[in-house]
Every structure is written in structure tokens, then in C-alpha cells.
Design a protein that fits this description.
92 residues; mainly alpha; 51% helix
Amino acid sequence: MKETTGRAGAGRAPGRRIPRRNPEGVRVGARIRRLRLKLAVTQGELVRRTRLQASYLSKVENGIVTPGLANLDRIARALGLNLAYLVRSGPL
């Protein structure tokens, strides 16, 4: 019988990191998701248009990964937007 230690993360696979959210990434990712949904574009369609991996786009939308300018530009173009509109502050 295995003993439990009661430590946090005791059931987690060894070496597996818990992703941390970047506040700037959360803001950009949430904006990308809102715009994508407003434009009725599925994540699968965005994957096809950008040629980025689905797991990467999911991490971007969830604020786990902050995309670089090249990928932000790919996402903006795929949504028919310019980069400045995608990353600006304020309402949609």
C-alpha cells in the first residue's frame, strides 16, 4: 500500500510543471478569444488559418503563453484585423 504524504502536488506526475499565467498574456489571450467568438470563428478554423498548433492557441487564449509579435500578427490577420487593434487596450 502506498503512503500519502499530504504534501501539495503529491498526486502530480514528477517533473510536470503547473503553468503560471502572465497578466499581460491573460489580457491579450482573453481579447483574442472574445474577438474570435464575436467573429464566429472556431478555434479549429483559427488553427487552420494561422497554421499554429491548437494547443498553442489554447494556451494563448488562457493566458498561459504570451505570443510574440509574429504570432500575434498571424492571429490578427487570420481574424481579419490589424495588429494594433488586436493588442490595444479598451473595449472591443
